[in-house]
Design goal:
CATH architecture: 3-Layer(aba) Sandwich
Structural class: alpha/beta
Order of helices and strands: HHHEHEHEHEHHEEEE
Number of strands: 8
Shape: globular
Radius of gyration: 19 Å
CATH class: Alpha Beta
Largest sheet: 8 strands, mixed
Helix content: 25-40%
Length: 273
């Protein structure tokens, strides 16, 4: 607990603009990944393999952008750094331990970009303007990944296990004290999930996404007690690989229950029009 408290304090110190809840989530993810190293190993390896597959499909390798770089456990950072001129790691929080890892391994071409890619604040602003003006259509689309078009010579964009977290994070913010739920549309979370996929589809480069799309919670006797769609009704892109990820094995959240997530990997993301 003391170590996590210290990590929280240092993270807030070097990233003063980061929301406290996002920092706590990042630290909690780090702790769970450490506890469940063996259970998560296959998922992390298959995520890296999916990204490696996408790298192989890129002929010109100037800049790679990783959305949701997180702890870098599921990102083949060694290969990305060695094969691209520049690698941009994008996340809402970059823990000091991750920054130190990059520094110690001497990746001179790897940079960090701290950014909320969910589009939540933009959607809240659009909702406020609609209420104030009475206009339902403002003539602009949600464009949470538009910042990527301002990065020079991007040849590969990787969405690494972040899409479902956009949905979960948005739902949590809606119920928070300052979540602006009173002005947000009823389908706000769905819009944000769709906005991420649409943003990937609009990019003029190779894209690859790895994301969990649903989960089941079941007892030891095999009885399923919960089944949830993590993309809130949005149709995911057609995958080239799928697998199960034991996010919460028996004993993690409950002694006699486990939570298993279904994961997909897809390239050249397109949206169903």
């Amino acid at each position: 607990m003391l170590a996590e408290a210290f990590l929280f304090a240092v993270t807030r110190l070097i990233s003063p603009g980061s929301r406290a809840s996002a920092v706590r989530d990042a630290i909690g993810l780090r702790a769970r990944a450490s506890r469940r190293h063996a259970a998560w190993a296959e998922h992390e390896a298959r995520t890296r393999a999916a990204i490696d597959h996408a790298i192989d499909g890129v002929a010109v390798r100037r800049t790679a952008v990783v959305l949701g770089s997180g702890l870098l456990r599921d990102v083949p950072i060694d290969r990305l750094s060695s094969m691209f001129n520049k690698v941009v790691l994008v996340d809402i929080v970059h823990l000091p331990t991750v920054r130190l890892k990059v520094f110690l391994r001497r990746y001179p071409n790897v940079t960090f970009l701290t950014r909320d890619i969910s589009g939540y604040d933009r959607l809240a602003e659009q909702s406020r303007i609609k209420l104030a003006t009475g206009q339902e259509d403002l003539g602009v689309r949600l464009d949470p990944l538009g910042f990527i078009r301002k990065i020079d010579e991007v040849d590969l964009v990787i969405s690494a296990n972040v899409l479902s977290q956009i949905a979960v994070g948005a739902a949590a913010r809606l119920h928070a004290k300052d979540g602006k739920a009173r002005i947000m549309p009823d389908d706000a979370v769905t819009q944000l999930v769709a906005g991420h996929l649409d943003g990937l589809a609009q990019l003029p480069c190779k894209t690859v996404i790895v994301t969990d799309v649903a989960y089941v919670r079941r007892r030891r006797d095999g009885v399923i007690i919960e089944n949830r769609d993590l993309l809130c009704g949005v149709t995911p892109p057609f995958p080239f690989d799928t697998w199960d990820w034991p996010v919460a094995p028996f004993g993690e959240e409950a002694a006699d229950e486990e939570r298993i997530h279904r994961v997909i990997a897809a390239e050249d993301v397109a949206v169903d029009l």
